[in-house]
Each structure stands twice: as C-alpha cells, then as structure tokens.
Design a protein that fits this description.
Length: 158
C-alpha cells in the first residue's frame, strides 16, 4: 500500500532515512532532526513531500520529493530525493509502487519531468531504474557546496 505521509509518520520516516544512510554508507552524514523533518514536510511553508510504502500499518519504505524548475521547459519538475525500501521488504513491489506513485504525482502537478540521483556503485538500483525506462545522464555530475565551503562562498557575496 502506498499513501501520503502524515505527521504521525515522522518516526517511521526517520527510521527509514537512518537505514538509507546505512545502506549508502553515509551514516556519518546523517543528522536526523525529527522536529525539522516535521516542519519541512508539514509546516506552513513545506518544502517537500513524502509517500510511504506500508505493510500491515508498518512503514517499510518511502519516497521523498520536492519541486524544482526547468528553465528550458519553463515548467516545474519534481526531484526524487530518496526512494528506499527496508531490506526485509524488498522484492515485493514496494519500490516500483513508490516510483510509479511519484511519477503519477509528477503528472498531476503538471511537471515536465522527474529527476533523481543514484550512486554509481548501486548496481541493483541502477538496473531497477533502467528497467522502468529511466535514462542515466552520462554528461552530468552532481556539484555540492556545504560546510565551510558554503559559508566561504556566501561570505564572498557580501
């Protein structure tokens, strides 16, 4: 079953996010703050949305997405930040159902496309996405400013 996340789902989402960080070998970067997550998902100026995959009222996976914008298409787009299914619930169609539900949300919102990133070592995810018709864009690399580099760039704007 796929459904929209509600505020009471925050502990389940936090658990899934921690498991995702462990799976991606990025636990050292995981700084879960449930109050902040609640504000960003359900506050007066929410910045993202989430869907849950559930088995018997237990969250077994999630998809978190937000709106971006394409200047070339002059239309909004959705960015799928995370799609994750707990190890014990894999192989039951939850990942596919989550991806399809986000794709449907993309169309309902009138968005031009759905984008996301995948780690280059994550062959199972790459294979899964390609079987759904996703193209991996070989010419694009993710760039990131954070921490001290972000503060330095911002300070240079003054």
């Amino acid at each position: 079953m796929i459904r929209r996340a509600v505020a009471d789902d925050i502990p389940h989402l936090a658990r899934c996010i921690r498991e995702l960080a462990r799976y991606e070998r990025l636990e050292h970067e995981c700084e879960i703050d449930e109050a902040r997550l609640r504000l960003h998902l359900f506050g007066p100026q929410s910045v993202c949305a989430a869907l849950l995959a559930a088995e018997a009222d237990r969250a077994v996976g999630f998809a978190l997405f937000y709106v971006t914008y394409s200047t070339f298409k002059t239309r909004p787009c959705l960015h799928l930040e995370d799609l994750f299914v707990m190890v014990e619930a894999r192989g039951k169609g939850h990942g596919l159902a989550l991806l399809r539900a986000v794709a449907a949300e993309t169309l309902v919102r009138g968005c031009a496309r759905l984008d996301w990133h995948v780690l280059d070592w994550n062959a199972p995810a790459i294979d899964f996405y390609q079987r759904q018709g996703a193209r991996l864009l070989p010419d694009w690399r993710t760039c990131r400013l954070d921490g001290a580099a972000l503060r330095a760039a911002a300070a240079a704007a003054d």
